[in-house]
Structures are given as structure tokens and as C-alpha cells.
Specification:
alpha/beta; Rossmann fold; Arc Repressor Mutant, subunit A; 7-stranded parallel sheet; 6-stranded parallel sheet; 25 helices; globular
């Protein structure tokens, strides 16, 4: 019989030993004591509550703000044979009722909930009936207004452990987990969760095997190609938007570097396919937005490259920390240019939502979906975000950031998922259709799958599902779509299809300005905090005389005395001690053979100084520019 943490770890996760602090945290949880686990990205936070959940009698409730992460963790647990489920937005009342009953009577070990779900009366009543063994709060920094993803709904979590919910039952322990938290945030976690006696488990943020470097470059794609061409291991490339993921992956594939892309607008199926290809090393590089990375389970990432300046040190540190999780030497590289600094202001500073933006967007949302005053609570709406912005002439980034503010302040629940709403209606009778298919038998499989699945397509407009048709016909979703387009063009059916990429659930009844006035102070404080985060990133990029690791550790209030001797700042200092004057260095490499300006720019000097020196050497007639755009000695 398996009954020790070590045996569980070996059986379900295949690990022979725990990572730092994991075993101590797990033992503390199993002894019934409250815990705060402050572990860096890749430190294995989820095992600290998933493993005890298997050993404890009853169900573990996991509070998480990330729908995608909840789904991924549940899928991973199910693959291990551990019963778990997630209750996310978009679930109808009847299904919610059934799922909660399953948690009471179905031997489930873990139930994942958003903090907003805890505020529902039905959920609260069912929780009282559950045998709760443990309460885990993931991304616990969200409870603090000083955390980088503050969500006020987190402040109501403490009510789940109210003594009135556990009459004649012991109070379950709480474990709060996060990767990044300042002392101010930790104090908030302790106070607001009412776990003042909790044991704090904290490892150093310092990852000696991970080297950080920042480089200013005018040609980021060339630098990206160079970095990846010299890397044999797995890599992640972070870009700012969805279009850039596809374009960058295409560029790399054209260069012979196998790459896939990942963003929040893709279907879950497509995202999972890309992830599996990358995890199995079928492709070397994953190009993603910040949507990629939460909960990924891949230890052999050697390189993380940021092609844009991140919007906070916290996000940069988490994303960079996805390299080197196995303990091998790894690198995090941030590439930027002058345009990025301008973009940082345009994309972040200028689009920090204010109270007036929240009022305007909230009113537009209600009008867009024709929500009446006092109505709309718990209604779910799928829509195309770009069309919404076009309708009201909104700035896309500011509008999306405002939706996120409304989400974090529990006015709406926001998620991104790509779906199609499709209707068809046959315009010909069954006899005419049979005759048509005799002449177009390549359309036979898909058409007959539709007829077998949907009985009323000849009589009325019918909603159809591409995935179901594809499964029954043995075709891909794209082949189903192409077939329906052909049938439409040949006047056999009317085919209406519309794409949606955004889902919102209204969490409160419509009350326009009054709704926003309640959260106005939170919006103002979040705006100020966001601005301070961006200023911290700018400072990190421009500070060229302090070791990168020391800078990062200082941001998280951790003092590091010794420099890493590996980051760009440390290497630059080392090179300054020994390197020749810049003009001499250029002449030395041109003695070897003629070189282009790009090849000369690989010297470890500031690029502006290299360009100025090349011009000076040309004026002094020490070098010349040849017809093939290479420089050589005179």
C-alpha cells in the first residue's frame, strides 16, 4: 500500500526526490498546519497541494484565477488517474449543480474554483456538505492590492473556512502559494486569509544556473536567428501579440529552425497540439505571448528570449524562469531597441485604464448585449473583440486592459477562447441533394455525417458543430469548413459562420456608473501600481553598472552581495578591463578578412560607438567600403 509522500511522488510524478522546500511544505500540510509557500517559477508549487490531496481523506479545494491553468492541471491529474475537476465560467446552473454533487459523493480529490465562484450561494451551500481536507490558494499574491495581479474577489476566500461551515468538523488547513511576493504582499496574504500562525516556506529567488542578459539591437530577427542557431536545446520566444507569434514562427521555420506558435486566440485543441509537439521536442522553439507558460511541465528549456520589453519585473522574472528548471545551465535574453521604449509608453503607460474608461467600456458592454438596468447577472456572452471595438471606435489595447480591470474587480469574468457559431439550412430537397452528391462524391462523407447528426436541416436553420461533424466523417475541421463553403457556393445550403474570441460573464446586475464607483479606488491604486511596475522595467534595462541578478534580487527585497559574473553587465565590466581601443579592435578583425557592418557590430562595444568609429576610420582612409558591402583595410 502506498502511503508516504515519497511513494506518491514516485508513483504519480515519476520523481525520486523532492525539490527544495517541497517535502517540508507537504509534511506541514499533512500535519494540519497552515502554510505559505513562496517558491520561484519552476519550483514545483502545484505538487505541494496535489500530493497531500491524494493522501488526505476528503477533497482539496484549489482557488485559482487562471482558467487555462485550472484546465491544464485537471487534465494532467486525470492523465495520472487522479480524480479532479474544474468549475469555470460558462457552466450552466444545472451542470454546476451536478458537478458540485459529484464533489460531495463522487470521491473526487481536487476541485478547482475561481475566487468569483466562491461568492455564489449554491457553491457556498455545497461546500458546507463537502468533506474538505485542504484549501489551496494558488497565485496568492492576487489577494493583495500590491500584488501584480490584484483581484478583490480573493479577499473573500477566508469566508470558506468560517467555523459555521465546519460545525462538528475540524477546520481544514490552508496553503497559500505564489512565485513572486514582496514582504508587503506576504503580510497581506497572512492578514486577509487569517493565517497568522502559518509557517512561511521561502526559497531564494536566486537561480545560479540561469544567466540574464539585456541587449539593445536594431535587428532583433537577425539576433534571434543567431541565438537559436547556436542553441541545441528547447527554447521559448516571447512576443507581444498574436500576429507576431505566427510571423516569428514562420521566420524561424524558413531559417530551418523548427518552431510553433501559441496564443490565447487559438482553440484549446490547437494550443494543446502545439504544446505537445514542443514538449516532445518535435519542434525546438515555441513562440508565444504571455498566455504561454503557466503550468508548463518541461524541464529542458535552455533559452528564453524576450523580443519585446515586458510590462513588469514580476512577469519577466516568471517567464525567464521557465528556462533551466532541471538545473542545467540556461539563458534568458531580452532584446530591445529605441522603438520598444516608445512602444512601452504607447502600449502600457497610455493604456492604463482610468475610472472614466471603466465606466465607458462597462456601459458599452451592456448596450452591446442589450442588458437592461438591474439585469444581466450570470449571463454569458461570446463575441468578437475586434468587432466590439470597431462598433464603438475603441482603442483595442485600452479596451482589453479595461476588460481585465473589470474582471479583476469581479464585475465580469473574462476569458479568451476561439469558437465558431455556425448555422446551415438546406435549400434543396433530399432527392436533389442525392443527385448532387453523385456528381460531387468528394463531399459525400461530410454531408452524410451532417444528415445523420442533425435531423431537421431540411426544415429549419440548424446550429452545427464542426468538431462533431469532423469526428463522425473522419475529416479535419478545416475539411468540414471547406465542404460547407462548397455546398454554399453551389447553392445547396445557406452557410452562416461567425468567429468569436472572447467570452464574458456578467457577475453583477447592470447599474452603470454606480457599479464602477464601488471599485473606483481600486482602479486608481492599480493604475498607480502599474505605472510603477513599468518604471521598474525601464530602470532594469537602463542600469548597466549593477549585475542583473543583483538588480532582480533587490527588486524582490533579497540581498545578494556577489555578482553573477555571467550576465551582460558583468561580462561587459570584465571585457572593459582587457579589451583594446575600439578602433584597434575593428582594424584587428579586418586584418583577418573583409567584414560587413553587421559582422563588425558583433564586437563587444556599444553599437553606436562601432558605427561612429567605422565612419571615422573611413574618413581617415584606414578602411574602405567595397562593392559587396564589406569593409577592408586600405
Amino acid at each position: 500500500m502506498i502511503n508516504t509522500p515519497e511513494e506518491i511522488l514516485q508513483k504519480y510524478w515519476g520523481h525520486k526526490s523532492f525539490r527544495p522546500k517541497q517535502e517540508a511544505i507537504i509534511n506541514n500540510v499533512l500535519s494540519g498546519k497552515d502554510s505559505i509557500a513562496l517558491l520561484p517559477t519552476g519550483g514545483g508549487k502545484s505538487i505541494c497541494f496535489q500530493l497531500p490531496a491524494i493522501l488526505l481523506e476528503g477533497i482539496t479545494i484549489v482557488i485559482s484565477p487562471l482558467i487555462a491553468l485550472m484546465k491544464d492541471q485537471v487534465l494532467s491529474l486525470e492523465e495520472k488517474g487522479i480524480k479532479a475537476l474544474a468549475i469555470t465560467s460558462g457552466i450552466r446552473f444545472k451542470e454546476l449543480d451536478s458537478l458540485l454533487d459529484n464533489c460531495i459523493y463522487g470521491n473526487y480529490k481536487l476541485l478547482y474554483l475561481s475566487p468569483e465562484r466562491l461568492e455564489q450561494e449554491l457553491v457556498q451551500e455545497r461546500i458546507k456538505q463537502m468533506n474538505i481536507a485542504l484549501i489551496a490558494i494558488d497565485e496568492a499574491h492576487c489577494i493583495s492590492q500590491w500584488g501584480h495581479d490584484f483581484r478583490p474577489a480573493y479577499r473573500n476566500i477566508a469566508t470558506i473556512r468560517s467555523p459555521k461551515n465546519f460545525i462538528n468538523k475540524p477546520l481544514p488547513p490552508i496553503i497559500a502559494l505564489t512565485a513572486t511576493a514582496t514582504p508587503k504582499v506576504i503580510n497581506d496574504i497572512t492578514d486577509l486569509l487569517d493565517i497568522k500562525e502559518a509557517h512561511l516556506f521561502q526559497t531564494s529567488y536566486h537561480r545560479p544556473n540561469l544567466t540574464y542578459s539585456v541587449e539593445k539591437t536594431t535587428d532583433k530577427l537577425y539576433k534571434l536567428d543567431t541565438l537559436l542557431s547556436n542553441t541545441n536545446g528547447s527554447a521559448i520566444v516571447y512576443v507581444r501579440n498574436r500576429k507576431a507569434t505566427a510571423n516569428t514562427a514562420h521566420f524561424l521555420n524558413a531559417r530551418g529552425i523548427k518552431a510553433g506558435f501559441y496564443h490565447g486566440g487559438m482553440s484549446r485543441e490547437d494550443r494543446h497540439k502545439q504544446y505537445l509537439k514542443w514538449r516532445s521536442n518535435e519542434i525546438q522553439v515555441m513562440v508565444g505571448t504571455s498566455a504561454f507558460g503557466m503550468g508548463i511541465d518541461k524541464a529542458d528549456v535552455d533559452l528564453v528570449i524576450h523580443m519585446e520589453i515586458p510590462d513588469s519585473i514580476e512577469n519577466y522574472f516568471q517567464e525567464a524562469g521557465r528556462a533551466g528548471r532541471s538545473g542545467q545551465q540556461a539563458k534568458a535574453k531580452l532584446l530591445y531597441n529605441d522603438n520598444d521604449l516608445v512602444r512601452l509608453n504607447n502600449q502600457f503607460i497610455k493604456v492604463i485604464p482610468q475610472v472614466s474608461d471603466a465606466k465607458k467600456i462597462y456601459k458599452h458592454l451592456n448596450n452591446y448585449f442589450q442588458i437592461s438596468y438591474g439585469e444581466g447577472q450570470e449571463t454569458i456572452h461570446r463575441f468578437n473583440f475586434s468587432e466590439f471595438c470597431t462598433t464603438y471606435k475603441l482603442h483595442n489595447i485600452l479596451a482589453f486592459n479595461t476588460l481585465q480591470v473589470l474582471d479583476r474587480n469581479s464585475i465580469i469574468s473574462l476569458s479568451q477562447e476561439f469558437t465558431k457559431r455556425t448555422t446551415i439550412n438546406f435549400k434543396v430537397n433530399d432527392f436533389a441533394l442525392s443527385y448532387y452528391l453523385l456528381r460531387n462524391n468528394q463531399l459525400d462523407d461530410v454531408t452524410k455525417a451532417i444528415l445523420r447528426t442533425y435531423g431537421a436541416v431540411f426544415e429549419q436553420v440548424t446550429y452545427v458543430n464542426h468538431s462533431i461533424i469532423a469526428s463522425k466523417s473522419g475529416k479535419t475541421i478545416q475539411q468540414v469548413h471547406d465542404t460547407l463553403l462548397t455546398l454554399d457556393q453551389d447553392d445547396i445550403i445557406d452557410y452562416e459562420h461567425q468567429s468569436f474570441d472572447t467570452v464574458i460573464t456578467f457577475l453583477v446586475p447592470r447599474d452603470d456608473d454606480r457599479t464602477i464607483n464601488v471599485i473606483a479606488s481600486h482602479i486608481k491604486s492599480q493604475a498607480l501600481y502599474k505605472r510603477s511596475q513599468i518604471e521598474a522595467v525601464k530602470k532594469f534595462i537602463h542600469t548597466s553598472d549593477i549585475c542583473r541578478v543583483i538588480q532582480l534580487m533587490s527588486y524582490f527585497n533579497e540581498k545578494l552581495i556577489e555578482s553573477c559574473n555571467l550576465c551582460d553587465v558583468c561580462l561587459q565590466k570584465e571585457q572593459e578591463r582587457y579589451k583594446a581601443p575600439i578602433d584597434q579592435a575593428i582594424l584587428d578583425i579586418l586584418r583577418e578578412e573583409p567584414k560587413t557592418s553587421r559582422e563588425i557590430a558583433s564586437l563587444s562595444y556599444p553599437k553606436e560607438e562601432i558605427i561612429q568609429t567605422i565612419r571615422l576610420l573611413l574618413d581617415q582612409k584606414k578602411i574602405i567600403l567595397q562593392d559587396n558591402n564589406t569593409y577592408t583595410l586600405l
